[in-house]
Structure formats: C-alpha cells, structure tokens
Specification:
homodimer; 208 residues; alpha/beta; Nucleotidyltransferase, domain 5; 2 domains; 6-stranded mixed β-sheet; 6 helices; 32% helix; 27% strand
Chain lengths: 208, 208
C-alpha cells in the first residue's frame, strides 16, 4: 500500500514507513506500485491529482472517507487528516503559514493561523530597510532585546511561543512542516514528526 | 513655545496642550510662532527638517539634549523621546510597525518590534487568496476559532496580546500610534495617549 499527500509543491509518499517526495507540478515519476498494490491519496492541488489519476486511475481519495469531529468550517484537508493522527495534543504545521490545531479525546476543538516564519521576516524588510534582519533562532525569550536585530527576532519568536504555550498548557505539542524544528526547540515537551498526515491517513483506513 | 515631532509622513505640533499635524513632504504652512516664541523639534526625516529650518532657522533640535538610561543600541529618536514621558510602564506604539519599550524607575530595560496590524493582514493575503480576510477586532481571545476568518484574527491579535501581557505583568501599558486604540481594548488597565512624544519633549526641557 502506498499513501500519497498531494501538496502545492510536492507529492509526498509513504510506503511501509519510508517517506519520499517529488515535485507536484509534473507527472509522478517515482511512484511505482507493485501489481495490485493499493494507492490512497489526499490532495489540495487539483491539477496534480489529475496527473496522478491519469497514471493510476485506481488510486482512491481518502478525503472521501474522512470524518473529523469538529465545528470548524473550512479546515484544509491536510490539517484535518493530520488531526486524525492523534487523540490529544496540539499540532503545529509550520510552513508558509503556521496552522495550529487542538485535539482532545479525538475531537478537534478549533485552531488558528499565524504567518510563516519567512513571511514575518519579509514584512519587517518591507516596513523599513533598517528592519531587514535575519531571524536569530537562538534569541532569548526571557531577556529583553537591546538592539534592532534581537528586537525583531524576539518579536517574531516570542509572540508565537507565548501563544503556543498558552494554547498547549500541559498538552503535548507536535511540530511538523519545514520550520517545525526551529520552533520545537523552544518547548521542552515537543515532538517533531513529519509523518503526521500519513499516520492520520492510516487511522482513517483503520476506521473504515 | 511650540514642539514639533517630524515623522515620515507628518509634522506633528504641540502648543499649550493643543496638538495638530500637516504633511511633512512639503514646507510647513500651519506653523506660525509668535515673535520670539521658541520652537523645539525632534526628527526622523532629514528633508522635512531642512524645510522647517529654512523657514525657522532658530528652531532647536531636542534630540541633542536627550539622555535616556538604556543599553539598547539603535533606538529611534521618537521611541527614545516617548520613553522620557514616563518613569514606569510599557509603551506600545502601534503604526506600520509595533514597537514596545519597557521603563522602570526611568530606566529603559529594552524593547522589541512586531509587524503593524495592517502588515499582518497583508501577509496572509500574500500566502493565499483564501487567507485574505479583514481583521475582526471583536475576536474572542479566549474561545478557539471555528473558521478561517476568526483563525486569522485570533492568530494576529492573540499572539500580540499574549506577549504584551507577559511583558507588562502589573505595569501600566500606554498605547500610542494609529492602531493604539484597537489594541488597547484588550487590556483593562491600558491608557491611550497620543501625546507621549510631546510629554517626553517637555520632560527633556525640564531636565536641562
């Protein structure tokens, strides 16, 4: 069985614990199922889905089987499927946006969206050339900044960390996405896991 | 005596408690001192300063007299002068950037910089058209969001408010700048005061 998470930039694949990816703006090249091997996918990118289905018309959309207990309207399929990976905890997906979702007893309690770290950095540069500074991921979140570069890194990191701490309280925080590790280091009880979506997909299959 | 705060967009004036402004990209038109009346200014915009000094060569730069007890390197003159307005408290200047400065017994303990509210809104729109939503200033900071628009407003507002609460603890928070009132409403012990810079200028004159 092969699982495929079709994102805006990549096809992400999972097969027996192995994870790999390839660009989703062209037809899949590295997806080679054995004869009769099942393919399940979820997708946020329609043209990439079409390209997959042209090669593998028998691939099944797991989004059709998804049931998540939530009041949230407009939850992206990738966020919803990652939520199926756990019963309790906070999921932080740190990419071009940072999405945060809260689970309790398998129920999705709600979530929120912050700008991605690189996007924060860009806004400062747009406000003034004086504020065009790289983010320091070793900035102290307890000492007050004493120069412009630290003032910016502190503003970005501490505003995010403060809110995540308030959200998580004593829940575990699962970080995923490209900037997951950069944020996870500020939390002692954090877990970095880039397979949350696949774990969610496996759980959806189990629930059938 | 007339005080003048020369900003990137406006000349801001103060005379006996009255405050007014005019664009700083042209020569001052509304500045009409009495014979022998003193003019003191601070400035972050050199060309606008020149235009003022051409008309009023006797105007004095109060920046030359400023002494602020701080370790911070690169503090803008407008932030530094506002700091002279108080002995204890937190100053939040919410404009195109949100600057935060902390004072204790007249000493500046440090500060940090967040993007301005309108800038936050713009980043989301840049990430995805689906995230192009106006900020709701009535979003609850205690209830978890259940839709995209609330998820964005909550992300922006609550990440800022959470950090400001942590910074201020039991200190008073003084809000200034165009978005000051929008943020002040989230704090029970907040003060909105658009004359902080002028109060600081008056204190510098007293200290001479």
């Amino acid at each position: 069985m092969i699982l495929c998470d079709i994102g805006n930039s990549f096809y992400h694949y999972y097969r027996e614990g192995r994870i790999w990816k390839e660009p989703s703006n062209a037809a899949p090249k590295t997806l080679k199922p054995d004869k009769g091997e099942e393919i399940y996918y979820i997708s946020v990118k329609e043209p990439a889905t079409k390209r997959l289905l042209e090669l593998f018309p028998e691939a099944k959309n797991l989004g059709d089987l998804l049931y998540l207990d939530t009041e949230y309207r407009g939850l992206g399929i990738d966020r919803a499927v990652a939520c199926k990976a756990l019963q309790d905890g906070v999921i932080v997906d740190a990419g071009s946006a940072i999405t945060v979702d809260i689970l309790q007893n398998g129920m999705h309690l709600g979530g929120y969206i912050l700008p991605g770290l690189q996007r924060y950095r860009n806004i400062y540069a747009e406000i003034s050339p004086k504020l065009d500074k790289a983010i320091h991921y070793d900035v102290s979140t307890t000492m007050l900044p004493q120069n412009t570069a630290d003032a910016i890194s502190y503003g970005i990191i501490t505003s995010i960390v403060c809110l995540l701490e308030r959200t998580a309280k004593n829940k575990r925080i699962f970080f995923t996405g490209g900037d997951g590790p950069s944020l996870a280091r500020y939390f002692s009880h954090s877990i970095v896991d880039n397979s949350l979506v696949f774990k969610g997909m496996l759980n959806i299959l189990k629930e059938r």
